[in-house]
Predict the structure.
Amino acid sequence: MRFQDHPVKAGFEKELTDWRMWWTRSVVVLFAVLAGLIVVGFTWLSEQALELFSQLRHVAWWSPLLWTPSCAAAIVWLTRRYVPGAGGSGIPQVMATLYPSVTTVQQPLFVSLKLSFAKIGLTSWGLLGGLSLGREGPSVQVAAGVMLAARRWLPKPSAVTDHGLLVAGGAAGIAAAFNTPLAGVMFAIEELSRTPEQRNSGLIMSCIVLAGLIAISIDGNATYFGIIRAQAVGWSLMFPGLLVALCCGLSGGLFSRLLVNSLTGKSPDRISRWRLRRPVLFAACCGIVVAVIGLVTNGSTFGSGSAYTREMVEGSATAPGIFFFLKFIATWITAWSGVPAGIFAPALSIGAALGKDIALLTQFPDAPTLIALGMAGFLAAATQAPLTAFIIVMEMVDGHAMVLSLMACALVSSTISRLLSRSLYATLAQSQLQRMPQAISP
């Protein structure tokens, strides 16, 4: 065989000379950069919104009693009337779009540029109202909508599928939101990817990492909740560590079950029926509950909870000891109200509070260690995505001594949660499909 006919040489020449391949790569990379920039802008906007709410509360301490329910009612009215696909966390919408039965024509019901920008505005408005929510789940839908818009610029036929763009975009949203590209990759594997994309896996992973690097280059390499400086792990951690994993599994499983029953609308109780009949009024009542809880805790339960979590990590938290319970209730009520809201950051805050409480209960001297375990355990139990939860928290730990402990806690908590509740996002994704003109079987 002549060298000119060698398959390696032919493949090499195709890589260099096929303009369609290079155009496809350029478009996907460009939209990955754009997705990262938009998520960074979303981060800035949400932080400014929460800061404005904090200033309002300091001007008039009673203002949340009027402002928070008004914001919740207005957000739910606008969402239901104009952009119903922007409700909820955003992750179930992306997962619903990945079902093979959902056609290209039907995808805008769940993911689109319009929904991405609506999600940014409505979620930021929720933080402006002091509601207990996070922006990380919404960032998944935002980035997925940006990446899916790239398909109109791809050559036809293209080796990059809608499935690949959605997976890359959704995972890029997590990577950029948390400044953790590795967590984005794991999220793509654990939650989003349903069929292997072997031909384009390298390009997809490159997009995820690129979006994360965009966030890091703009926001710096600082972690979302600060740095957890845990001491060396020894046998003394065995009992309190197991207690944290058990409590996180039980409470996180309960949290997931409450969300599933509340958000799918299948609960037969009177309150759920009232929510279906009067959703805007119900949202206003939820806003009042969130406002009262926030005032009782001197504002610590308002917003994502990242500021108070950072104080816990630093050892300067001053909120009441029942913060765990009150943040748990405030986050559930916020999600139940129907506003666009993520749970990642609030779940990490709830888990951190649980870890701190157990450290006080057991008189364990190294509270940051149990705080880290609580964050990983509760997030893993709530989402039933233990590897993603473990990696997100691992990025915040100064040192590798806790890596195995974090992984074990996340896996144990997630396993316990599965005994109490169905998978949160998978169940909500199936519920999203009911918005189709005709029901689609998963």
Q: What stands out?
A: The domain at 12-219 is CATH 1.10.3080.10 (Clc chloride channel). The mean pLDDT is 85. The chain has two domains: 12-219, 235-434. The CA atoms of residues 148 and 162 lie 7 Å apart.
